[in-house]
Amino acid sequence: MSLYGTMRTGVSGMNAQANRLGTVAENIANSSTVGYKKASVQFSSMILPATGGAYNSGGVETDIRYSISDQGTFSYTTSATDLAVNGNGFFIVSGGDGVEYLTRAGSFEVMDDGTLRNAAGYTLMGYEYSSTSDPTIVVNGFEGLTPVNLSSASISATASTEGQLNVNLPSGEAAGYSKATSLVAYDSQGNSRLLEFTYTKTAANTWTVEASYAGPPVTTVVPSTTLNFDADGKLTSPLSLTTLGFAVDGANMGAIAIDISGSTQLAAAFSVETGAKINGNAASEVVGYEIDDKGVVSVVYDNGDLTPRYRVALATVQSPDNLTPIAGNLYSQSNDSGVIVMGYAGSAGFGTILSGALEDSNVDVAEELTAMIESQRNYTANSKVFQTGSELMDVLVNLKR
């Protein structure tokens, strides 16, 4: 056995234990870092061939692995923009260089420019929300992503465009009987406008309805229209009313399509059926944000309305543990990780999003302290091997003297 080989093997062992101590130090330092995934060292032996009956000691080499697929526990917060992925998937974030990265660190907050950035300064990416269909995504690329930006979420007003008003008209009343009800609608500036609907019986199974804006100025919005009922008291025609648009105080009151198909004429008192409504809303201020488990980012107004703005996208790879770690709790695709696949929370292969929660580091400090003690002892033992080899080398050199 070569003395030189003994010293080389001792150095190899010390280097291996130094690498392990390095991962232990990093893991302990990041035990409170949101979304941090622990690093570990795997050892493998280096065997050198023996020649002529002489043993050549090899050594040990290390391979650094990351437990990226190992999900941490969750800590719950009071901020709706703190996000965590429960299951598979990574948030897509972008830095100042415009390059997209993957991360599990979801400690996002709204910045003064309206973007959502995490503690490392990276901006959350997503797609603009569509009420009719999910945005079309590029499955294997980041094209189409845009920063989630809530700066446009300010005071909002929505004009009324449609509604529903179903009533029961008492069949036992004589011709000339009249009854009124009203609905609130909203003009283009968010002002509330009261529309009054008046029903008058003209004959058996026949009524008229007309509607007007109380003003000022008083404006007819539905001219007198005949309602016809069959022998069972069901409305046969018309099944809807459309109000006339008009201008008032510099704002526009647009035409409103009102569904009346559920109206009846039965032997009961006049009543307005449940569900009478007209859409639209008055001017409302933003009071917060809400993100659901499918990643839909909505603005919350003081009148209780929710307006969806963005859909947060998620990404996965075939082998998450082989992603390349980058400073800032970021990951990028590597040759061994597989290609990045895009999708949405709640769909097949992807987890769900928790709002008001953060994923904890998956580091077990007690386990790391145990590993630190083991590495310390092993490092000391390897240093003794090196020291012994060095002393024997001195003996060998001194034999000539």
Protein described:
With 401 residues, the chain is of the alpha+beta class. The protein has three domains: 3-67 and 363-400, no CATH class; 85-155 and 286-352, no CATH class; 158-283, Flagellar hook protein FlgE (Tick-borne Encephalitis virus Glycoprotein, domain 1), CATH 2.60.98.20. Helices cover 15% and strands 40% of the residues. It is built from two helices and 34 strands. Strands 5, 6, 9, 10, 27, 28, 29, 30, 31 and 32 form a ten-stranded antiparallel β-sheet that branches. The chain has a five-stranded antiparallel β-sheet with strand order 14-15-16-17-18, with no helix packed on it. A four-stranded mixed β-sheet has the order 19-22-12-25, with no helix packed on it. A hairpin with a 4-residue loop joins β27 (286-291) and β28 (296-301). α1 runs antiparallel to α2. The longest helix is centred in the C-terminal third of the chain and has 34 residues, at 365-398. The chain is rod-shaped. The chain starts with a helix and ends with a helix. The model has no long low-confidence stretch (mean pLDDT 90).
